[in-house]
Design goal:
single chain, Nucleotidyltransferase, domain 5, 2 domains
């Protein structure tokens, strides 16, 4: 029996999973991703500790299936990166994707670069999260360290290097640096030369599902893996999740709910048009017969729920035997809220918004009659309204109405959240029978890299799941219009306030 491993290093959890040739889960291990919050909007990860925990996961999974493993694929969070010397020794910790310390760098960059022109090359709109902004910040703040650096590695690159000793990345992760030309599918000499950097600082780029080497001999022996076990590129965790549930058909969209929430649809060409720029969408290549992905995101999804549990929901934590129990108790409380208009709106921008990093989260419409259940329901509904707003924009931009949204990620396990999603987004929601979507997508790409699977066969590995439909007459349709009005007002107000602070 052939088995394929998927490694996924996410913002919250780090996972290793094994799947057989039919896409069935054979073995699994998960650990919290080691992350240090350094202050508001600032976080780092120790690369050696990351690798140590990946090794722990590999040891656990390989103890069950090691001798049958054919290949390994790697998925990771997008924009985090670190500097390494010529031997691959880390010189810095990973700056996590939401680290906002480079914001002054973004503002300086935009004084010398036209944002729309950057988008037309890279498919990305200049923002603080991108790897290039972190590189420029490190060059300014830690010049001695930067002068020693010979490599900039994403999380995916780092794990591939630790496994094989080879430098490689995939096109989706390369795009998250904002230094990759998505038309030529190569590092942008134009962008890099404009900021005084060389393409050689970055890893060679391949489509997802490309073999980059084999597991190092000593490591393969330690893990009980066959000699010559293939290691392949995977990609951005959301892109890998899309592979796992076969997001290739018009009118079908991925909704990946993690710490952030990402909407994604596939296209056969990079739609680098002004209307996508104006809509604050991004475009990047990944793999397959429809190789491009059009992406929209809310930077605060699971982060909003964690914020509530940590700040106001400590009683859920105290009474929970397991972390998941607190989450379950919170959603059960939300289910007790009546399906009526409570008046409470939640705008889920606790980590800003793609189009406005200054935008803040808000509760609106509160009075002394509101219950905790209504506040929790408002958080869940606010997440749905924001994604509906973005989904509507994608429909307009692509000219294709969304018929089905396929949802993956931790919140997809909650029937209450999924039913509220169907109501607030006013569309059909499908939750595929897919355990650990990003891991599974990376494993599928590993199977393709090994020559054991083709892209045309992926649909066979994506069985149908649970369906949720909108409920006619739900007051959410009226509330959504209030949400849009409040969003517009607050977006304008915080943009003006942010501009005043940075004069």
């Amino acid at each position: 029996m052939s088995v394929y491993l998927g490694i996924d290093v996410g913002t919250t959890n780090l996972k290793v999973a094994a799947f057989d040739a039919h896409g069935q889960l054979c073995a699994y291990h998960s650990e919290p991703t080691p992350r240090r919050e350094l202050g508001p909007g600032s976080a780092e990860m120790d690369p050696l500790l990351i690798w140590e925990r990946v090794l722990t996961g590999l040891r656990c999974v390989c103890a069950a299936v090691g001798k049958d493993v054919r290949s390994i694929g790697v998925s990771s969070m997008g924009e985090a990166g670190l500097l390494c010397d010529r031997d691959g020794k880390p010189l810095s910790d990973f700056m996590v994707w939401y680290d906002s310390r480079p914001q002054p760098i973004v503002e300086a960059f935009l004084k010398t670069h036209d944002a729309q022109e950057v988008f037309m090359q890279t498919g990305q709109i200049p923002a603080v999260k991108y790897g290039l902004m972190k590189l420029l910040w490190l060059r300014r703040e830690k010049p001695a360290l930067f002068r020693q650096a010979r490599h900039w590695l994403s999380v995916e690159d780092w794990i591939l290097f630790c496994l094989t000793g080879e430098y490689a990345t995939d096109e989706s992760i390369a795009s998250r640096t904002m230094a990759f030309d998505v038309r030529t599918r190569s590092w942008s000499s134009r962008i890099l030369s404009s900021v005084g950097m060389e393409p050689e600082l970055f890893s060679p780029v391949f489509p997802g599902g490309t073999p980059v080497g084999t597991v190092r001999g000593g490591l393969a022996q330690e893990l009980g893996l066959p000699s010559g076990t293939i290691v392949s590129t995977g990609g951005h965790d959301h892109a890998c999740a899309a592979v796992s549930i076969n997001i290739v058909s018009p009118g079908v969209m991925l909704d990946s709910m993690g710490t952030a929430e990402v909407l994604m649809t596939a296209a056969d060409a990079p739609l680098l048009e002004k209307k996508l720029f104006d809509g604050q969408y991004c475009v990047y290549p990944h793999c397959g017969p429809l190789p491009y992905r059009i992406v929209s995101s809310n930077q605060s999804c699971g982060a909003c729920i964690e914020w509530y549990l940590n700040t106001f929901g400590s009683h859920f934590r105290r009474s929970a035997a397991q972390p998941a129990d607190a989450y379950r108790a919170m959603t059960e409380l939300a289910a007790s809220a009546a399906d009526t208009e409570s008046g409470v709106l939640f705008l889920p921008f606790i980590r800003g918004a793609v189009e406005n990093p200054f935008l803040k989260g808000s509760f609106l419409g509160m009075d002394d009659s509101n219950t905790e259940a209504e506040y929790v329901r408002a958080i869940i509904d606010g997440l749905g309204y924001e994604i509906r707003h973005q989904m509507t924009g994608l429909e307009v931009l692509t000219g294709t109405p969304v018929q089905i949204v396929r949802v993956v990620g931790g919140p997809s396990k909650s029937p209450l959240i999924m039913q509220r999603k169907a109501v607030t987004q006013n569309c059909r929601i499908d939750v595929p029978q897919c355990t650990e979507a990003a891991c599974k997508g990376a494993a599928i790409l590993a199977a393709i890299a090994a020559g054991d699977l083709s892209f045309s066969q992926i649909a066979e590995l994506a069985p149908p799941g649970t369906r949720y439909d909108p409920q006619p007459g739900d007051p959410a349709q009226q509330t959504y219009r209030r949400y849009l009005s409040a969003r517009e007002v607050l977006n304008t107000w915080y943009r003006q306030k942010g501009a005043e602070q940075h004069v």
